[in-house]
Amino acid sequence: MEPLQAVKGMRDILPEEAELWRFVENQAIELFKLFGYKEIRTPILEKTELFVRGIGDATDIVEKEMYTFSDSKGRSYSLRPEATASIIRAFIQNQLNQSQDRKFFLIGPMFRHERPQKGRYRQFHQINVEAFGIENSMIDAEIMFMATEFLRRIGIKKDVELEINTLGCSLCRPKFKEILKDYLVKFEGELCPDCVRRIHKNPLRCFDCKVQTCKDTLKTGPIIYNYICKDCETHFKQVMEYLSLLGVDFKINPYMVRGLDYYVRTAFEIVTAHLGAQNAVGGGGRYDGLMKDLGGPDLPGIGFALGMERIILLLEEVKLNSNNPDIYLILLGEKPRKKGFLIAQDLRKEGFKVEMDYEERSLKSQMRTADKSKAPVALIIGEDELNQGVAQIKLMNNGLQRIIELNNLAVELKTLLR
Ligand code: AMP
Question: In what order do the strands lie in the sheet with 354-356?
Answer without folding.
Answer: 354-356, 327-331, 377-381, 390-395, 401-405
